[in-house]
Give the backbone structure.
Amino acid sequence: MQIESLLQPSPPQTPPQTEEELTQSYFVVDPAQRWGSQDLSELWKFRELLYFLIWRNVKVRYKQTALGVIWVVLQPLLMSFLFSIVFGELGQVSSNGAPYLIFAFAGLLPWQLFAHALSTSSQSLVTDQQLVTKVYFPRLIVPLAAVLAGVIDFTITLVVLVGLLIFYGVSISAAMLTLPLWVLLLLGAAMGVGVWLSALNAQYRDVQYAMPFLAQFLLFATPVAYASDLVPAKWQLLYALNPMVGVVDGFRWALLGQEPRLGISPLISAIVVAILLISGIVYFSRVEQSLADVI
């Protein structure tokens, strides 16, 4: 008798009709109620997802590569050698008394992380669109994970640079103690630009076509292959609006002990980075409300 009752189809259930019944039957994720709101505390709640995405991005980057992480060291070394020939030997560009190879490598160290943020964060939401449209989590995690995945490459390159400093006999000064501050400024610049580009590319796919040109333009607009004091004084204020100017100057000052007077470029860079971060989060929050529809 019990078996027969189990085999009998259950009577159809009446779907809930009232708003209260609907709320009890479904989990509703409401969008932000005010323009540009972002609950940053959710980033901490979903920190394990952030760690997973960072590790996934690192593994995907070097999957099925013959040299693997050797590319992390090979790229800045080859670029430094090229800059040494073109700018150091042929162009006779001043390196402020330091060996030009070390001078160029110290500039490429922060630039590579910033360039990584430009290329990967701009495509991050589009690349992870299946995850974004299927599961709820703070979408801000996606571009942040793309940026932070480059920190591993940055750390390896920094160790190589320290080895080169020892090899060339460059004395390490107390200014190196300020290096964590410049790393924070670099991460702020990378995250600010990354958040902006990811949100813009989700709405306007033209951004992905502008990335190669933007990266090349900013490379020569940043004192990577030359010292920032080569720029005429009347252009220094406008030049410092590029946040990477203060970052590169700060890295060279901390690692090479050059230019005890950094000028106003680090201060301007800090202000620009703060504006980029705040405005980027605000704009991203606005785009996030309709992200699943436009991506």
Q: What stands out?
A: The chain is about 70% helix and 0% strand. The chain has a mean pLDDT of 81. The two ends are 55 Å apart (CA to CA). The first helix runs from residue 2 to 7.
